[in-house]
Amino acid sequence: MIIDDKPRENCGIVGIYGHSEAAQLAYLSLYALQHRGQESAGIVSSDGENVYRVAGMGLVNDVFADVQKLKRLKGNIAIGHNRYSTAGASQPMNVQPLLVRCKEGPLGIAHNGNLVNYRQIRRQLEAKGSIFQTTSDSEVILHLTARSPAPTIEQRLLDALSQVRGAYSLVFITLNKLIIARDPHGVRPLSLGRLGDAWIAASESCAMDLLGAKYLRDVEPGEFLAINNEG
After folding, report:
1. How many separate domains does the chain show?
2. 1 within a domain of the structure (yes/no)
3. Alpha-carbon distance 29 to 72, whole Å?
4. In which domain, by residue range, is 36 found?
5. What 8-state DSSP symbol labels residue 188?
6. What is the pLDDT of residue 9?
7. What H or E segment, with its residue span, contains residue 57?
8. What pLDDT score does 3 carry?
9. Catalytic residue, candidates 4, 10, 11, 148
10. What CATH number is attached to the domain comprising 214?
11. Cα 184 to chain center, whole Å?
């Protein structure tokens, strides 16, 4: 098995919360961030009852050439990912966002960065019975979250992130939340903005410019934000 341990400095990620056309906004954002990754693209959305995923190899326009694909991505929450092409890592199973179903429900992740201790964590998890579906370092975060005894998804994610080392900007999606995290050193970029009442997180503010959204600020190093219908 070839483990994907190449840094993905240039992946593009986006998160949308509170907009009736969240997936469409995510699509446009990924188009604006296309320069950050050309290997694959994907979007996961939620309507509060179900999650939906469309992802594949190629440019954003290639993956979403069939307009029906975007129409299948229902809901007012969405996350998206453009993957940076790296040697030996071009495999469909590694296309993000990754999506799993934990005991609290579905959880999706889009990751820009590189976890330097993921090989060690992966070996430990496999020794305990975890079965990995990809060769991506991002998947260890999902396994650590699923195994955490913490009572809430936010606490379980924080528990997982406390065990990884390296650079990351992350957006997560649950049935009713958008969760945003940046590593303690702020190595990978992540911006926060608003479009009316909707929230937007993106690797670069150019995504917000395309949407006509207002850039608010950069997500602070080490910051962890959970956005739901209470703000």
Report:
1. 1
2. no
3. 18
4. 12-227
5. S
6. 52
7. strand 51-57
8. 47
9. 11
10. 3.60.20.10
11. 18
Assigned token pair, 51: 């999650």
Q: What pLDDT, on the 0 to 100 scale, is given for residue 90? A: 76
Asked whether residue 28 is assigned to any structural domain, the reply reads yes
pTM for the whole structure: 0.94
Q: Which residues does the chain have with pLDDT short of 50?
A: 1-8, 87-88
Q: Tell me, yes or no, whether 6 lies in a domain.
A: no
Say how many CA atoms lie within 13 Å of 170 toward its Cβ.
31
206 is catalytic: no
**Is residue 189 a part of any domain in this protein?**
yes
Contact 13, 112 (CB under 8 A): yes
Strands 214-218 and 191-195: antiparallel
pLDDT value of residue 84? 85
Q: Give the tokens for residue 161.
A: 């992130």
Length of the chain as a residue count: 231
Q: How far is Cα 109 from Cα 100, in angstroms, rounded to an integer?
A: 9
The Cα–Cα gap between 82 and 134 comes to 17
- Nearest CA among 128, 129, 158, 127 for reference residue 145: 158
Q: According to the model, what pLDDT value does residue 7 have?
A: 42
pLDDT tens-digit profile of 55-97? 999 999 999 999 999 999 999 999 999 998 553 367 899 999 9
Structure tokens given for 92: 């469909």
Dist CA 204 CA 10 (whole Å): 11
pLDDT at 1: 45
